[in-house]
TrEMBL record:
Source organism: Flavobacterium okayamense
Organism domain of life: Bacteria
The enzyme's E.C. designation: 2.7.6.1
CDD domains: PRTases_typeI
Gene (name only): prsA
Domain Ribose-phosphate pyrophosphokinase N-terminal: 9-123
The protein's name: ribose-phosphate diphosphokinase
Gene3D superfamilies: 3.40.50.2020
Top EC class, one word: transferase
InterPro entries in the cross-refs: PRib_PP_synth_CS (IPR000842), Pribosyltran_N (IPR029099), PRTase-like (IPR029057), PRTase_dom (IPR000836), Rib-P_diPkinase (IPR005946)
Pfam families tied to this protein: Pribosyl_synth, Pribosyltran_N
Keywords recorded for this protein, A-Z: ATP-binding, Kinase, Magnesium, Metal-binding, Nucleotide biosynthesis, Nucleotide-binding, Transferase
């Protein structure tokens, strides 16, 4: 009996193996073997340890800091192209550099556009990602982009809480569209936080647009970095009479003193996905895996099926 190669294989960058293993298990194939050779100066070289000729390969890699993650992904794409892979799908649960989506002052780069061009130049034929910081980043690519929404896994959890007097909140004006989308499905009120910054990651003032008195509030955002915005928003809402405040953030960057800020804040709970691995455990942080969502969409892409049913926003 001859052995038949699967039509698709899944590989992972070194810092995304934890997630890729779960995706591969849900997809129904073993995680592919790839090794990284390292030179004494820190340079590295990926090598696929099995044939991928004529196959679709899914390369799982969240491009969170350090920049080695992005470089690993670029090298793996190039290696797959030179190994005659038929399709190369870059699966990027967290798309780094997405906050650099425009020139907000003179003489700065548009980092998200640069990353898009790097991925395409390396040889990616498709991009799969989740909750981009700005939807328009899809337009930076000339290749198909599957932009998934974590709302498909967050909404069932919110409903399971059974909260009365629910209000969805956006921590800033830019996230109001996301908040309204959640509120539409949950049939809840919406509150928006208006904040002013003296500099990046430092909030000067924050005001609420809407009423939270006697409400159970859930803040929704695409990412949490230093945690300052969400901690401040929770404190302000409790001061304004909210019963409880929770936060849902797709990507848990959690840099600097973020863990301490979350622990010391009025937040009852922070719910995140595993697009980025947590640096440490926290009693206030709950992780919901996005592996099944990616595995299902990868199956749909492989079988040329519509994925529109996975878009709840």
């Amino acid at each position: 009996m001859s052995y038949q190669e699967p039509e698709a294989k899944i590989f992972a960058c070194s810092q995304s193996v934890y997630l890729a293993e779960k995706i591969a298990e849900s997809y129904g194939v073993p995680l592919g073997k790839v090794t990284f050779s390292k030179y004494s100066d820190g340079e590295f070289q990926p090598s696929f340890e099995e044939s991928i000729r004529g196959l679709r390969v899914f390369l799982v890699c969240s491009t969170f800091p350090s920049s080695d993650n992005l470089m690993e992904l670029l090298l793996m794409i190039d290696a797959a192209k030179r190994a005659s892979a038929r399709h190369i799908t870059a699966v990027i649960p967290y798309f780094g550099w997405a906050r650099q989506d425009r020139k907000d002052k003179p003489r700065v780069p548009i980092g998200a556009k640069l990353v898009a061009k790097l991925l395409e130049t390396a040889g990616a034929t498709r991009i799969m990602t989740m909750d981009l910081h700005a939807d328009q980043i899809q337009g930076f690519f000339e290749k198909p982009v599957d932009h998934l929404f974590a709302s498909t896994i967050f909404l069932p959890y919110i409903k399971s809480l059974g909260l009365d007097n629910l209000t969805i909140a956006s921590p800033d004006m830019g996230g109001s569209k996301r908040a309204y989308a959640y509120s539409k499905f949950l049939e809840s009120d919406v509150v928006v936080c208006y904040k002013q910054r003296k500099k990046a990651n430092v909030i000067d003032t924050m005001e609420l647009i809407g009423d939270v008195k006697g409400r159970n509030v859930i803040l929704v955002d695409d990412m949490i970095d230093t945690g300052g915005t969400l901690a401040k928003a929770a404190d302000v809402m409790i001061e304004k009479g909210a019963i409880s405040v929770r936060a849902i953030c797709t990507h848990a960057i959690l840099s600097g003193e973020a863990y301490e800020k979350i622990e010391n804040s009025q937040l009852a709970e922070l719910i995140v996905t595993d697009s980025i691995p947590l640096k440490k455990e926290s009693s206030k942080i709950k992780v919901i895996t996005c592996a099944n969502l990616f595995a299902e969409v990868m199956h749909m892409v492989q079988n040329n099926n519509s994925i529109s049913g996975k878009f709840l926003m």
